[in-house]
Amino acid sequence: MELTLQLSGSNAGNPVKTRVLERSDIGHRAENQDALGQRMVGDWLICVLADGAGGHRGGEVASTHAVNALLNEFALTPTQDANQLLAMVHRVNSGILKSQQLHSELENMHTTLCALVLNQQSGQLVWLHVGDSRVYHFRSSELAARTKDHSVLQWMADHQQTEPVPSRNALYTALGEQPQQLVVEVSPISVAKPGDCVVLCSDGLWEHFSDSELALLTCNLRHDPTCTEHIHQLALDRAKGRADNLSSMFIFVEGVSSSG
Question: Whole-structure pTM over 0.70, yes or no?
Fold first, then answer.
């Protein structure tokens, strides 16, 4: 899906043109448990992606709920305030916990979550994440910032632990955990510039690329309408028949009009 928006940057008084591309592929799994969605709420754009897990149907239910519930929560009170965004995610998590209690077949369901919020008047953007679905901020062909995975493997690397080596997919927090175990991180607010791209993606995509390679691919393919198809196909080729579900959202900042 492609969505073209005119976004106003209040600092320069000129509109900023952006393009949003999104794609989700089942990979070589029996079902696709990823979910993604976007919405315009007045001057605000919100993009959300989730990667579910937890047995048959469980992952799909969790991820779909997370995306839809966060979009609905945000529509009621659009904001970039970190505390308000955190409260929204905790309410989304409460909905998943209730479903776990009501339906025994869903008791193990959980999901990652990442989201971008961009204000069309200021050009300011902020993102949040839980789990190992990532947000990348590319400036031209360079990595400006990205999220750090809430994975056991990342924790071990941060704490210089090497034994035992867990599964790369093992997470220490995700939606579907009790509130005291839920870790949600919100980025500082930054301002979009022409040439920027923000990418939201599940681990089924990013595991096949280094940060620098994904930055170069994004930069080189930014004007190609089949950008996501190319990148997803490369990931599928590299998976050699063992691809996880893979999903992505590319938010391109394409330029500033001097005429306003």
Answer: yes
